[in-house]
Backbone:
């Protein structure tokens, strides 16, 4: 099924998301993989979870062989309108000074708690020992 240069929106591609009619988007190209669902080594569910979005990362993460990539050509139906595909957002970690300040705050809090609790525990232990030894010698 060769594509004739037709351009699809992501909404149009998303309408084809069943095992009777399954289209996916990989590297800006739209593929009708309905006939391949039963033959896919990972099962049809793997492909069906990649419908309605840009499946390029899903496809590349698996590490498909060059033969698998070449097979895509026979399922090509057109291109995706890149304006309709949401921009990928990358995780940006918070600045390191912010992380360190949060860690410093939590360790400062722990130190203050320990400075309060340790003397109380020592005092409680001393009173407990005194009480125990006092009752032992009185008997």
Residues:
């Amino acid at each position: 099924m060769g594509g004739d240069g037709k351009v699809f929106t992501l909404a149009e591609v998303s309408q084809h998301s069943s095992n009777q009619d399954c289209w996916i988007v990989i590297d800006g190209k739209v593929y009708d993989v309905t006939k391949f669902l039963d033959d896919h080594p990972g099962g049809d569910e793997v492909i069906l979870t990649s419908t309605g979005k840009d499946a390029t990362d899903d496809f590349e993460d698996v590490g498909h062989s060059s033969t698998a990539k070449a097979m895509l050509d026979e399922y090509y139906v057109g291109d995706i309108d890149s304006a309709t595909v949401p921009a990928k957002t990358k995780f940006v970690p918070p600045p390191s000074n912010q992380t360190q300040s949060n860690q410093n705050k939590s360790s400062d809090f722990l130190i203050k708690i320990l400075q309060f609790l340790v003397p109380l525990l020592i005092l409680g232990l001393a009173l407990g020992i005194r009480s125990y030894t006092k009752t032992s010698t009185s008997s």
